[in-house]
Write a structure and sequence with these properties.
single chain; seven-stranded mixed β-sheet; elongated
Length: 192
């Protein structure tokens, strides 16, 4: 099935694990390009950043049969993007804002495929999942923040961690919330 070399343009251990679970052989190359975007809507922001990362890595590689996958995930609540927290106080404020309500997780996935002549095919898409969080007390939020590494997670939580006990339900792709909609990627790669 896999003929082309695949590069995952991400340092995320969660994305790496999902690609491995799917059975892909791939390399990791991390883009260090400054993440600058012009879009305002969360789905457009993640698409723009995923494409920026994928293009940066593609430009660093020789023209060959190659697939580069870039991804970016954000959490949005009432249309506002919640990035990675800057402090524990910031993490508390983020979780406090959406507890007892629903928010969205968007992952932009840019898949760049190159043939032997350097011809490029680009698929750039955002996957959305609605996440419903049960009401939480301040003590529950503080306990979670103290027991999990929230600083490297968009929205200050990981659905696959201790925060799972506070999730009422999701509508959409669970793995999208983890950080990579692997089923979507599989279907795109299958068609390429």
């Amino acid at each position: 099935m896999q003929k082309k070399k695949i590069i995952l343009a991400s340092a995320s251990p969660r994305r790496r694990e999902l690609m491995q679970q799917a059975g892909y052989e791939f390399e990791i190359q991390v883009s260090h390009k400054e993440e600058v975007y012009t879009s305002e809507a969360p789905d457009e922001i993640v698409k723009e950043l995923a494409l920026l990362k994928a293009k940066d890595i593609a430009n660093q590689n020789e023209a060959e049969e190659l697939v580069v996958i870039g991804a970016d995930t954000v959490v949005a609540y009432q249309g506002a993007v919640l990035g990675k927290p800057k402090s524990k106080e910031d993490a508390f404020a983020m979780i406090k804002s959406f507890q007892g309500d629903k928010h969205q997780v968007y992952t932009g996935v840019a898949i760049l495929s190159y043939d032997g002549e350097g011809n490029e095919t680009v698929v750039n898409h955002a996957v959305k999942t609605d996440v419903y969080v049960n009401p939480m007390t301040d003590e529950e939020i503080l306990k979670y923040i103290e027991t999990d590494n929230v600083m490297d997670k968009a929205g200050s939580y990981g659905i696959q961690s201790g925060f799972a006990i506070h999730i009422e339900k999701i509508e959409g792709d669970y793995f999208n919330v983890v950080g990579l909609p692997i089923s979507y990627i599989y279907e795109v790669l299958k068609r390429m």
